[in-house]
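User: As part of a screening pipeline, I want to sanity-check one entry by hand. Below is the sequence and the SMILES for copper (II) ion. Please return the complex as structure tokens so I can compare it with the automated output.
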Amino acid sequence: MMTLLILAILVLLIIAIARIVRIVELANELSGEDDSVINESDNKFNGRMLFFIMFATFGYFGWVTMKYKQFLLPESASVHGLATDRMLWITFAIIIAVFVVTQILLFTFAFKYSHDKSRRGLFYPDDHKLEILWTALPTIVLITLVGYGLMVWNKITAPAPKDAVVIELYGKQFDWTVRYGGKDNNLGKSNFRLITDNNVVGIDYTDEKGKDDIIVKELHLPVGKDVLLVLHSRDVIHSAYLPHFRTQMNCVPGMSTQFHLVPRLTTAAMRLITKNDKFDYVLLCNKVCGVAHYNMALKVICDSPEEYAAWMKSQKTVAESMSQAAEPAM
Ligand SMILES: [Cu+2]
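Assistant: Here is the complex for your manual check:
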């Protein structure tokens, strides 16, 4: 109803403006003025309107920024995310500063130098110094930003330390499965040919290393520890996206990809920061991978070391699940 009302108001407004324009035209005709000739006051009016548009644009920009600030991500829950966030904000600061300065110059010039019959144009074909300045300055700024970005990127994608907790993420249409290496922190062999309804990641049961693996449907991360996510896909390309950890990596069928991160805020700590005691981290698929893509989310829990150890202990290993399945039903 409200939308209909707003639409009706807009239509009426457009009709009213069209009528007013027509009245002005008729008035000009009656007074004998030729409105195709642009006079001094027209130029002044256009200059002022341009200036008004500049302030309106700045105002709108500020309003939108404040209004939607609440939808921005909270502070990064991973260590490398602090570096990418800093980079992002530095880039934003430069972009906003350049935007404001260039717009002020543009509209001030349009206002100040609107056509004036008494003013003579200045013939100013080129200025090498100026051209060098406006070519060199953006080049230096961009090279600095790209260089800074490469440095951060190299740091983020450096190999994970040997003792990192290895966690395998397995994506398929349309859910995720998580596998931990168990006590030996070593994932057993797996093969896509072995995938069945009961063996969703295709574990090779003959491999001793895989016996203590743990397969679960939620992702637990230990705070302060190096974590190596090893990503797989069973069907199409998925993308494991952990927005709060500033992490995203594609899951590609037929190969494994990986991402190393260090979580820095537990779920409990993030609940305090977001002032939301129901807050939970989430892992989302960030590739439109099929009809139920939207549903491809996984709960992520970032634990303190003690909580993580306790949770790990409470989980069944592959060997335990196997022996349980082999037991005859009572
Ligand atoms: Cu997906």
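Points to compare against the pipeline: Residues 94 and 141 are 9 Å apart (CA to CA). The chain has a mean pLDDT of 88.
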